[in-house]
């Protein structure tokens, strides 16, 4: 059975790459960067390369807190990011540990695991300015972001919590992942 070729998804990244972001074009942008008339089929996009590693299987794992630092400025994992984990104790945060993310932007081991994961308020302090300075990004001094506090609440210590954190020298976002 013959199927028509799929049209590539239009994303801001594909438009920026083609130099067409913000032009308000009504047509479709092909993978080659050319603008096609509305309704015209676009050529099939090039296939991505094979994955070199598979996802880590999470089923059967006990309660844990993990994180993943993603450098949105470069579109890469936040390798070598220093992060300090603290727990709220009264009116202050008490330091628990300092980690440095690996080449994949993740902590070498869970931040908290099994009985170490307790209900409460936590802070993961990311050393963003130090990270960008270490990899040679020219930033104003002082930079807009120096230390970024990621604050969150563990309500059920029997669950798994994952913090994907996307950051640039000027902004960040995070959410509870899976």
UniProtKB/TrEMBL annotation:
Its EC number is 3.5.2.17. Keywords: Hydrolase, Plasmid, Purine metabolism. Signal peptide: none annotated. The keyword Hydrolase applies. Residues 65-177 form the Transthyretin/hydroxyisourate hydrolase domain. Residues 40-56 have a biased composition (Low complexity). Residues 40-59 are annotated as: Disordered. It comes from the Bacteria. It catalyses: 5-hydroxyisourate + H2O = 5-hydroxy-2-oxo-4-ureido-2,5-dihydro-1H-imidazole-5-carboxylate + H(+). PROSITE patterns: TAT. GO terms for molecular function: hydroxyisourate hydrolase activity. GO terms for biological process: purine nucleobase metabolic process. InterPro entries: Hydroxyisourate_hydrolase (IPR014306), TAT_signal (IPR006311), Transthyretin/HIU_hydrolase_d (IPR023416), Transthyretin/HIU_hydrolase_sf (IPR036817). It is an enzyme of class 3 (hydrolase). The keyword Hydrolase applies. Gene3D superfamilies: Transthyretin/hydroxyisourate hydrolase domain (2.60.40.180). Catalyzes the hydrolysis of 5-hydroxyisourate (HIU) to 2-oxo-4-hydroxy-4-carboxy-5-ureidoimidazoline (OHCU). Belongs to the transthyretin family. 5-hydroxyisourate hydrolase subfamily. Homotetramer. This is hydroxyisourate hydrolase. It comes from Methylobacterium bullatum.
């Amino acid at each position: 059975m013959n199927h028509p070729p799929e049209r590539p998804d239009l994303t801001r990244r594909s438009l920026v790459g083609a130099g067409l972001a913000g032009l308000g074009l009504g047509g479709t942008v092909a993978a080659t960067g050319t603008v096609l008339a509305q309704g015209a089929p676009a050529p099939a996009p090039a296939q991505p390369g094979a994955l070199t590693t598979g996802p880590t299987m999470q089923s059967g794992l006990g309660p844990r807190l993990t994180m993943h630092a993603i450098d949105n400025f470069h579109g890469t994992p936040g390798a070598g990011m220093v992060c300090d984990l603290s727990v709220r104790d009264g009116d202050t945060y008490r330091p628990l540990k300092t980690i440095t993310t690996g080449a994949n932007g993740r902590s070498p081991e869970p931040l908290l695991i099994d009985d170490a994961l307790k209900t409460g308020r936590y802070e993961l302090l990311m050393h963003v300015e130090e990270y960008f300075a270490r990899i040679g990004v020219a930033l104003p001094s002082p930079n807009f972001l120096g230390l970024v506090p990621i604050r969150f609440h563990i309500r059920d210590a029997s669950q798994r919590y994952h913090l994907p954190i996307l950051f640039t020298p000027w902004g960040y976002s995070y959410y509870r992942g899976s």
